[in-house]
Write a structure and sequence with these properties.
With 508 residues, the chain is mainly alpha-helical. Helix content is 50%, strand content 9%. It is built from 22 helices and eleven strands. Strands 3-4-7 form a three-stranded antiparallel beta sheet. Strands 1-2 form a two-stranded parallel sheet. The chain has a two-stranded antiparallel ribbon with strand order 5-6. The structure holds one RNA strand of 74 nucleotides.
Length: 508
RNA sequence: GGCCUUGUGGUGCAGUGGAAGCACGCCGCCCUUUCAAGGCGGAGCCGCGGGUUCAAUUCCCGCCAAGGCUACCA
């Protein structure tokens, strides 16, 4: 029997990281068994489903590098329409439940249950009779039994106010059966409801699929990862910073009357804040590589059994086994993800890093590209490759490269330690070395490095740091930068002299 | 409240009826022009209480905690 799996998100928002893992596992299982993966959009919630979400989900899955055999055509993103029935892939379409409803697929089966007395009308909705004990087997969680007394008759077709559409329970059951799905791989939140699906399968005369429920992915504090986390983080930062509400939307947001993501993002931008990544698009924006995201989430609730942690899609497909899926919810550890990402970035061919960084900056940091210029960008990328956790790290750490001279703020501790301590020892070095720099006419990293080295020897200073650290404070306001040679070269002679002068003026 | 599920260091995962491993993090030292990286070393875990057993982290029961479901949301 050919394996058929499906990923069936409801298009009510962007693709969540948990959804991405579900998709990844369904994908890996299908590929491992040379089966089929179906992408089906469950848009039976009229009020919340949007075409933008559909496009977002297709876009995010594609970015991750996951493909599917049946469902909306990914090419529809290039100016097409994913809802266009003729362009959808596969024999079991359409793949939008709204379209399937329009075709009368669900109504016909609801009527059948009604005719057989297995369902009944109540007000203008239809309820299914749950009148017996139900047992089913889950590949991960094992045998589950639910007593009839704990079950209630549930709605399978909504009334007028729900547009007479099928409910989630009815539509999934019907579609999985009609599409020939053999393995239903989905989040654990559906485990309890599976008794409903099992009962429905039996009543409709469908074979039951294999159910595979995946443990949930949680926040570091144990709460469920959700979009609201972004709102919470932004609100806290805004209140801490004493931000005044700019408009009604923001006022409502700060008063906890709304969790509008757009407002959260606006606040984050204003405060140079990175919101917790929740959706796939957030991880992309933060500069994580798709391969690393996939690798990391594959390890949440699954492992290959031999201790291997770093792997790509090929390895996953080869080793994927439902038996190795755990039952425990796992907490998402951004620190570990960042480490994975940093390693991959550091080990990458420099040319590859540069092109990825350029791509990221083109989308998210165009101002850096403009200010650095082509040759500046080369140096910048080289300087930060080994220091980057994400493709956005260089922008965060290297802001001093693109800001104006008078935006540099001097950190007290750094100033004290490197400039004013010991009667202004560092400040003196800075003043003296400024004259050396002023005479330098070969402004390259190598010769600047040599200049510092010989100056250190000539003045019998402790080590290069005696010169480099005061320079760092003058250039950045802090004591941290990439290697001093490239840093000075990239900043350029005029800027370097300006910043030294300003530093001496402000600090001295 | 009822029902379902889960419970190994801070986190993610291994593992076993016979002195608990890996990865990330954390701490210290080394290297070093700062940071990062790297090298070396270290702290820290089987939720609690009963039972079965010569022996329980592992099997059984109870408790507790966490998550889920209990919607005309999915």
């Amino acid at each position: 029997m050919t394996v058929v799996t499906r990923f069936a998100p409801s298009p009510t928002g962007n693709l969540h990281i948990g959804g991405a893992r579900t998709a990844l596992f369904a994908w890996a299982f299908a590929r491992k068994h040379s089966g089929q993966l179906i992408l089906r959009l469950e848009d039976t919630d009229l009020a919340r489903s949007t075409p933008q979400s559909t496009r977002g989900i297709i876009r995010d899955l594609t970015w991750l590098g996951l493909d599917w055999d049946q469902g909306p055509n990914p090419k529809s993103l290039d100016g097409g329409d994913p809802y266009d029935r003729s362009s959808q892939l596969g024999e079991h379409g359409p793949y939008f439940q709204s379209q399937r409803h329009a075709d009368g697929i669900y109504d016909k089966l609801v009527q059948k249950l009604l005719d057989e007395g297995k369902a009944y009308e109540e007000d203008d909705a239809v309820r299914f009779r749950m009148d017996r004990d139900i047992a089913f087997d889950d590949v991960v969680y094992g045998h589950i039994e639910v007593k009839a007394a704990d079950l209630e008759d549930f709605i399978i077709r909504k009334g007028e106010k729900g547009g007479k559409l099928p409910t989630f329970h009815f539509a999934v059951t019907v579609d999985d059966a009609l599409m020939g799905v053999t393995h239903v791989i989905r989040g654990q939140e559906h485990l309890t409801n599976t008794s409903k699906h099992a009962a429905l399968c039996d009543a409709l005369g469908f074979d039951r699929p294999q159910w595979v429920h995946l443990p949930s992915i949680m926040n570091a504090d144990g709460s469920k990862m959700s979009k609201r986390d972004k709102a919470k983080a932004a609100r806290k930062a805004a209140i801490d910073a004493g931000l005044e509400p700019a408009d009604a939307a923001m006022k409502a947001f700060l008063n906890k009357e709304s969790d509008d993501t757009k407002v959260a993002e606006a606040i984050a931008q204003q405060l140079h804040l990175t919101l917790p990544e929740i959706e796939v698009a957030d991880f992309k924006r933060s500069g994580y590589l798709q391969g690393v995201v996939l690798n990391y989430i594959a390890l949440l609730g699954w492992n290959p059994g031999d201790g291997t942690e770093r792997f790509g899609l090929d390895f996953l497909v080869e080793h994927f086994d439902l038996k190795r899926i755990g039952k425990k919810n796992s907490q998402f550890d951004r620190v570990k993800l960042a480490k994975f990402n940093a390693e991959v970035l550091a080990e990458m061919e420099p040319a590859k890093f540069k092109s990825l960084l350029k791509e990221h900056f083109t989308t998210y940091r165009p101002d850096y590209l403009e200010k650095l210029g082509d040759s500046g960008f080369e140096l910048f990328a080289t300087a930060y490759q080994a220091r980057s956790q994400t493709l956005d790290t260089p922008a965060e750490l290297g802001r001093f490269f693109v800001c104006s001279d008078d935006e540099i703020e001097y950190n007290d501790k750094a100033v004290k330690k490197n400039l004013t301590k010991n009667d202004g020892e560092g400040l003196n070095v800075l003043k003296q070395f400024r004259e050396v720099l002023a005479k330098c006419d070969d402004w390259t990293a190598d010769s600047l490095h040599d200049l510092i080295e010989s100056f250190t020897a000539e003045k019998e200073l402790k080590n290069m740091g005696s010169v480099a650290q005061p320079l760092r404070v003058a250039m950045t306001g802090n004591a941290v930068s990439p290697e001093i040679g490239p840093t000075l070269e990239l900043l350029g002679k005029q800027t370097v002299l300006n910043r030294i002068d300003r530093c001496i003026r402000e600090v001295g």
